[in-house]
Write a structure and sequence with these properties.
Length: 117
């Protein structure tokens, strides 16, 4: 089933097209970069799944979302230092046969996430 993400910009009420995202596998304090990408017009990875069934393994992962870079690129005036720079979501995969969807709802001032479907 694999791993996917989707980012919605709650300030503008749109997908977060153009946001930079990085995916890491983690083990303790060590993080290994697996891929970097820029979200498409729908706020999703343009290549589809971040990891497919063949590459998703049980373990811990991190998604790192460049929130301040995205809002600056959209022309939003942010204070310095800005409230949210990069949002880091650490999560675990217990059963690699299931689908794991990690959405992010974000503004310059807040974010929320959940395990989606």
């Amino acid at each position: 089933m694999g791993l996917s993400t989707h980012v919605l910009d709650t300030m503008h009420g749109t997908p977060a097209a153009g946001m930079r995202v990085a995916l890491y596998s983690t083990e303790g304090e060590t993080a290994t970069l697996l891929k970097q990408f820029v979200l498409n017009q729908d706020g999703r990875n343009p290549d589809g799944l971040l990891l497919d069934n063949d590459h998703l393994q049980p373990g811990t992962y991190r998604l790192l979302f460049d929130v301040s870079g995205y809002y600056r690129a959209r022309g939003v005036a942010l204070p310095e230092p800005n409230f949210l720079g990069k949002v880091s979501l650490d999560f675990g995969i217990a059963d690699a046969a299931q689908h794991y969807h990690v959405p992010l709802l974000v503004s310059p001032w807040s974010y929320s996430t959940y395990r989606g479907s």
